[in-house]
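As agreed, record minuted below.
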Amino acid sequence: MDQYTLNMGDGTNPNDAGPPPANYAQPPTGNPNMAGQQPPPMQPMQPQQGYGNFGAQAMAASFLTGGDAGSAVGMAAAQYGEQQFSEISGKVSQYVDVGQMRFYFTVDTKYVGKKIQRLLLPFLPKTDWERQEKEGKARPPKDDVNAPDLYIPIMAFLTYVLAVGLELASSGRWAPENLGLILSSTTGWVVFEVLVCYGALWFMNVAGHPVLELLALCSYKFVGMVFGLLTYFLTGRFDFFLIVIGYNALCTALFLVQSIRNTQTNEMGHNPVTKGKLTTFAGGLAFVQAVSMVWFPWSIINQSILTQEATSGGPSSVLLPSAADAPQM
């Protein structure tokens, strides 16, 4: 053994090794440049954004629920969904006035029933059409049946699209792209109507009608259109369809005229000049809505009957006016 031989203790037991000599070279460990320095303290792990938060919430929820995995995941999913919804709502509120939109969805069952009654029976006597106000501000729909809302128009619009799909399926013309075409074309037409109405009011120097209110007024027609389509689908009679859709078109036109003429928000209707302009605007809008209410479902039914005639090889038993130029919906 050379000078680096280990001290063997008392020399009797080879396993009884003593400490190494002072000049014994220790094997290098770690970074040689870090000799004589303390290792850096360990940094606590930071939770990652996105799905990392969901994992942390799941672990916390598991502790709170006593280790029940199903309840923990459900609680964590609810917390994570609420957090994401809050973030998305914050971003949407930068571009859309969520408070104003919420105003047009403040409805209840009583309001919906009375509003549909106004749409179907606008000629009832002793009907008050004036908007109600509280402290100079318009009341929400649930407190004023004359206030426009967006709940009924949106529900009627979706029901109309489903009714069109039902009619397409019954005539053998069902295809996802056809339903998509109906949805896009109808939406585009409503947007066009709203833009025209906004431009007309601006041209007549009449302010006070928000865009969402114009959207509601231009979408109430879908209630009558649904009744017309369902009447034809259930009876198969085009003459019954014309009676129902014609009646609903007249009722919707009268409803729009009364609703717009009697607008009192911000004292719009108290000025005789402004009220005359609103009457002209209401008459034009009512005429366009009545025509579109008849035209759109009639074109769909006409195409269905033409398809049935081509399939059966004979004329249909339902007599229709000539509509070769009906648009492909």
Notes: Strands lie at 133-134, 137-138.
